[in-house]
User: Which sequence fits this backbone?
């Protein structure tokens, strides 16, 4: 919906990817959303401008640590990212913990004999 706000529109289309669709389900359903509440639209627009400015500050100062990291729900975005090492250097320098991806396959505990 940020794109709708940026273009001055009161509506936009949100497209979703279903990760585990049923056989007959559309994998990429689309929904048209319209802002009906001006207060909600203003709040989202203020959030959008703040995030845009934060990103611009990071670019201007060439400091990626100024931009908050969004890893996605359950951190899915970072799991197989080829830049994890470089990203962790920035994270640790900023005083944050390094990101550790989950094991690709669950590790089973050995049964006690
Ligand atoms: S690990 Fe990759 S996807 Fe995750 S925040 Fe860093 S650069 Fe982005």
Assistant:
């Amino acid at each position: 919906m940020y794109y709708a706000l940026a273009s001055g529109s009161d509506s936009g289309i949100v497209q979703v990817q279903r990760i585990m669709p049923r056989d007959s389900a559309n994998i990429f359903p689309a929904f048209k959303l319209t802002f009906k509440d001006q207060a909600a639209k203003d709040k989202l627009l203020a959030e959008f401008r703040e995030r845009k400015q934060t990103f611009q500050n990071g670019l201007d100062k060439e400091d990626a640590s100024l931009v908050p990291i969004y890893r996605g729900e359950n951190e899915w975005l970072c799991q197989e990212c080829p830049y994890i090492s470089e990203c962790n250097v920035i994270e640790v320098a900023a005083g944050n913990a390094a990101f550790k991806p989950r094991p690709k396959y669950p590790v089973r505990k050995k049964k006690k004999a």
